[in-house]
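=== RUN LOG ===
request id: a7f3
mode: sequence -> structure
chains: 1
length: 229
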Amino acid sequence: MKLDRRIGSYLNASVGYTFQLAKGTGSDPFSYLRTTSRQIAQVTGSRVPPPQAILPTDDNRTHNVVGSVGLSLPDDWRKGTTVGKIFSNVSVFATFRVVSGLPYTRQANNGAGALAPRQGFGLTATSIEPVNASTMPWTKNIDLRLNKAVRFGGMDLTAYVDARNLLNFRNITSIFVETGDVVNAEHRRQTLASEFSNLRGEAAGNSALRAGDAIDLSGCGAWRIPSTA
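=== RESULT ===
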């Protein structure tokens, strides 16, 4: 659905809305291979069969609202006035977009760090809900461009200001499927485990390791790094 409206000679606006339900037994021919084919049914001990129910696909973005507003003032607008000198040959164009999040499937947290929207081939752990049962947060954005045409030294020039995400909305474009959030403590722990282990070993070799794995860094400038040879 789209609505266009022109107000007077200088202002026009447009807004559109799309309602979408994209469902099926798979997002593409490899959906089953990426998801339930990798899991073993606890009752039968065999692979989980392909889905029979109609479920949301990976690109099911249910709500989409987009629009634009444009204002253009001609060269002779309020000619002979101070306001006319400042704002003549000025154009303003703003666009906005508000859309619902894409679906994803929550997985048991084994620290793999899988992300949504889907990255890579498929599931990295056991899913804990039906395929694409969860949804990422909404995304919203407003962009603004301001143009001013001027004549300088026989040349026609255009100065402009281009502002993206004008209101500085916080948009989340990727989350951990294991936590449904932008943080995953288990993934962080596993990723940094080797680094922390090396640091503890280095601190112990320099008599700087304290109780509870605390490390005294007051004299770290004089530490000797253990040889790895």
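=== NOTES ===
The helical segments are 31-34, 82-87, 185-205.
The chain has two domains: 2-182, 184-229.
=== END ===
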